[in-house]
Amino acid sequence: MRSKLLVPIFGLALALAGQSHADEIDWTKVDTAFGKTASVQGEVHRYGLPRTDLQVTLDGVAIKPALALGGWLAFEPMQDSAVVMGDLVLTETEVNPVMSKLLASGIEITAVHNHLMRASPATYYMHIHGHGDPVAMATVIRAALAESETPFAAPAAPAAQAQIELDTDKLDAAIGVKGKVNGGVYQFSVPRKQAITEDGMPVPPAMGTAIAINFQPTGGGKAAITGDFVVTAEEVNPMIRALRENGIEVTAIHSHMLNEQPRVFFVHFWANDDAVKLAKGLQAALEKIAVARS
Length: 294
Description:
This protein is of the alpha+beta class. Helices cover 25% and strands 35% of the residues. The N terminus is likely disordered.
């Protein structure tokens, strides 16, 4: 296990909080420190960080935050503290100020990269990792994100989710799991069969190890698709070959973590075409991967 955070400013708080047990974590204090309320998936407390302030377009498509601009942070209790992992969506000028604040506070940076190509303005994705007191980590991450324009104000009350303009039954059949509507986007989460561990501890799907596939309707039965496949080294080329054979762009291949086992790579993709046709192309790619589907 990585050593706990040794932070010049917050180190004492982290050390003291490390004396408490994970089952004694007061998650309301984490919510307060972060300024948001978490969704809870098992033991994981996950915070959404959608960049609703950004107006990003790609090939004429106005990108909804739920399609490709949905940053997040997830906290999982571990022994006497918690682990945090996350994916922060940043503009080019925000990357280094946010990174500097995080590093100074003892939060590790595990990746910085693109997910999309040709997007305007360009967005970058910073993956982070920390281990320590969740309240202190929420505090320093919130302070670091103050170097960006990431919104923290409470969103307006969501309207009832309307029926999305896609044949979701056919999409579900192709992907092999039931999708859900979120922010005008039809989303899938497909877990891998085998567990992924980091530093010897399982990393659950809610911490970013599930395959994410998103469909945003673009009219006439078409959809823009993006997301990321989580693949082992030997799966990369068979899977991306299947994507390319079905007219789906491969926009990035990279890591998100540093010490995971088995070693996995994240493959991002893009297309805007008939949604069912694209779903069948994604199905062909999923068949090259060891995934858990009903």
